[in-house]
Specification:
The complex is a heterodimer.
Chain A: H1 5-34, H2 36-63, E1 65-68, E2 72-77, E3 82-88, E4 92-98, H3 101-105, E5 108-115, E6 122-128, H4 129-145
Antiparallel strand pairs in A: 1-2, 2-3, 4-5, 5-6
Chain B: H1 18-39, H2 54-69, E1 71-75, E2 78-83, E3 89-94, E4 98-105, H3 107-111, E5 114-121, E6 129-135, H4 136-150, E7 163-167, H5 170-198, H6 203-228, E8 232-236, E9 239-244, E10 249-254, E11 259-267, E12 276-283, E13 295-304, H7 306-316, E14 361-363, E15 383-387, E16 390-395, E17 399-406, E18 412-417, H8 419-424, E19 426-432, E20 439-446, H9 447-471, H10 486-489
Antiparallel strand pairs in B: 1-2, 2-3, 4-5, 4-10, 5-6, 7-8, 8-9, 9-10, 11-12, 11-17, 12-13, 14-15, 15-16, 16-17, 18-19, 19-20
Helix pairs in contact in B: 1-2, 5-6
Chain lengths: ~150, ~500
């Protein structure tokens, strides 16, 4: 399974808002310092940069995937550095569900599975709230059922 | 709960001299500073004033109050410690979850016949229990009770006999510490010579700073040697016992089944001597001493030869044959020493995994030649392998590290592939154990091999975990949360409860 399509909308909105602000700032600064031609150039550069960022964000969004198996959870992510984590439910210490202000605007949440190893890195962003709650409850139940000592 | 608890009902206080031992350093430092400032060495040199004494008095009073409001109690399966005047902190340490028990004796405490007992649990450092200070016999007796209860025996069981496995001669310790600082010293001396050659006038300044560097280097060596002096490892049914220290001494006990990983480190400069360091990782948190985060890393052998390291490895690893039951602990019952190749022979790929000869073992083939582009230096040391119970991985060129992780302790399996690795068709598989950087890395494997390795390791560790939790009721002190042993079942779920009442 993969995160909600709303995660892509959220990420693109973030990139576009950031790019827009940067374009206005760069355009104003260049315009005041070196005239309208420079302003247009600066805006063009920022817009191109934002488009590149947008395509990177698209790939990143597509790379997220998770699979709930009988005994473990598999999370896949990453574009430049590809990662895949297999985390047994029995090793789970606790589950974290978090949602920042922007996440909440898009009604999304991030589920994070913590184990005793700091490196096990099972984070799933951009889940719809109901899916996040379902996953959290399922993980908690499975974690309890299959718990193993350290 | 009142701020000054009555004693009785099994509650006990720490030794009355504890405030002295705990605060004397602070008091002395403040007094020394005050002395310096009044004598004019530091500051304007005024006459002593009443508030110069206020700080040491406050420190001393705080220590005494802290002693007054601290009490502890051993309550069947739980050790309870309560402390704090304004913010009351009451912690309950389930004995079944103990990861390690340390007996720490700083210099002054040792002079007074006192000892601190430090009980480590998994989780954050705040979950640790510290009893500072008890009289030495009381601390030893309490440790015996805790460990006996931890192993599901009657708490009154006397501390089982131990057999000394190895001890490190002081000469070797000094040599190893000196060699480790040689590089830094060499660089400093070379830099000094260059400066002196360029401008002879700067010779005095260089000489001065050189003296400082020598002092710092000497202190580093001294710290190493004094903390590791008389390093002795003993095996007992309780676990591995480590004793060390010159002025202040530390005695650590690590239950064997709590070991998360064993690591053998061979620094470049030690290789001519065929020396290595052996470390074990125990889940938990290095508390106040700050010797790392996430997990406690303890030296099992600060410096030693391959034969010693092999013997200790067999003792520390759960995959090794089980320990003799209490009573028949004789040297003959110990597993035979495991042959390890001489470090630095360069043929790490031929290194046999430290696995009992009866169990199936295999070392995967070395990484493909194209991995040289990714790891030009360490390529020919890279090796990794696993069997049904244990994974082993060798990494690093300058600081060669061999890590053994029992599959039953694996927390997660990860596949990581950077851009360069993707281009070369390689990938790295990590097997994580509890802690911050505790893992075996199967570096630079072929991509397809890595994919199947992830699946295989995940499946094997699942089986190993099941076997361990099935074995728990039989083997005393097995995994606790699995809830097989009667001892474990009666333990309250929270590892630590801390309540704060303003």
């Amino acid at each position: 399974m993969s995160p909600s399509p709303r995660l892509w909308r959220m990420r693109s909105a973030e990139v576009m808002a950031g790019g827009g602000l940067l374009a206005v700032a760069a355009g104003t600064a260049a315009g005041l310092a070196a005239g309208p031609a420079a302003a247009a150039g600066a805006v063009a550069v920022v817009v191109l940069g934002s488009l590149a960022a947008l395509s990177f964000a698209r790939n990143r969004f597509r790379s997220w995937a998770y699979t709930e198996r009988d005994e473990d959870l598999i999370v896949e992510r990453g574009v430049l550095i590809r990662r895949l984590s297999v985390v047994p439910y029995g090793r789970m210490q606790f589950v974290d569900v978090s949602a920042g202000p922007i996440d909440r605007m898009f009604r999304l949440a991030t589920v994070k599975l913590h184990t005793a190893a700091a490196a096990s890195d099972a984070r799933i962003p951009g889940l719809e709230r109901e899916e996040a709650a379902r996953l959290r409850d399922r993980l908690a139940a499975l974690g309890e059922a299959k718990a193993a000592g350290l | 709960m009142s701020a000054t608890p009555g004693l009785g009902d099994g509650w006990r206080r720490l030794h009355p001299l504890s405030p002295l031992v705990r605060s004397y350093r602070g008091v002395l430092a403040v007094l020394a500073l005050a002395g310096l400032s009044t004598s004019g060495a530091v500051g304007s040199g005024n006459a002593p004033r009443w508030y110069d004494l206020a700080l040491p008095v406050i420190v001393a009073v705080a220590a005494i109050v802290n002693w007054l409001v601290t009490r502890w109690k051993l309550d069947g399966v739980t050790l309870r410690i309560e402390t704090g005047l304004l913010r009351r902190d009451s912690r309950q340490l389930p004995i079944a979850r103990i990861q390690a028990v340390d007996l720490v004796r700083p210099f002054l405490a040792r002079m007074l016949g006192l000892a601190e007992l430090r009980i480590r649990l998994a989780g954050s450092g705040h979950a640790d229990g510290r009893l500072a200070y008890l009289t030495e016999p009381a601390a030893v007796a309490l440790r015996a009770r805790l460990l006996a209860a931890h192993h599901g025996l009657d708490p009154a069981t006397p501390e089982p006999a131990e057999q000394i496995v190895t001890s490190v001669p002081a000469g070797r310790l000094v040599g190893a510490a000196a060699i480790s600082t040689v590089t830094t010293a060499g660089v400093v001396v070379a830099a000094g010579l260059v400066v002196a050659a360029v401008s002879p006038a700067g010779l005095v300044a260089v000489g001065g700073s050189l003296a400082w560097w020598l002092i710092i280097g000497g202190m580093t060596v001294w710290r190493h040697v004094s903390s590791q002096y008389g390093f002795t490892v003993a095996a007992s049914p309780d676990g591995v016992r480590i004793r060390r220290g010159l002025l202040g001494t530390v005695a650590e006990t690590i239950p064997v089944q709590r070991v998360q990983a064993v690591r053998m480190v061979e620094p470049l400069l030690w290789r001519p001597f065929h020396w290595c360091r052996l470390e074990v990782d125990v889940a938990g948190h290095a508390g106040v001493e700050g010797e790392g985060t996430g997990s406690v890393r303890k030296a099992l052998l600060p410096v030693g030869g391959p034969e010693e390291a092999g013997r200790l490895l067999r003792i520390a690893l759960p995959a090794a044959p089980p320990f003799p039951a209490p009573g028949d602990g004789s040297a003959a019952a110990l597993p035979p020493p495991m042959p390890l190749p001489a470090p630095g022979d360069g043929s790490a790929a031929a290194l046999p995994p430290p696995i009992p000869p009866t169990s199936p073992s295999r070392f995967t083939a070395p990484p493909p030649r194209r991995a040289r582009w990714k790891a030009p230096l360490s390529y020919h040391f890279l090796a990794a392998g696993h069997d049904g119970t244990l994974a082993v991985a060798v990494t690093g060129r300058v600081r060669r590290e061999t890590v053994w992780v029992p599959l039953a302790k694996a927390q997660s399996v990860r596949f990581v592939q950077g851009p360069l690795q993707r281009w070369l068709g390689l990938a790295t598989v990590h097997l994580d154990a509890a802690g911050r950087r505790v893992r075996a890395e199967f570096r630079e494997r072929r991509q397809e091999e890595a994919r199947s390795l992830v699946a295989e390791l995940a499946a094997l560790s699942r089986t190993a975990r099941r076997q361990e939790s099935r074995a728990a009721p039989a083997a005393p002190g097995g995994p606790v949360v699995a809830g097989g042993a009667g001892q474990a079942a009666s333990v309250a779920p929270p590892v630590k409860t801390s309540q704060s009442e303003a």
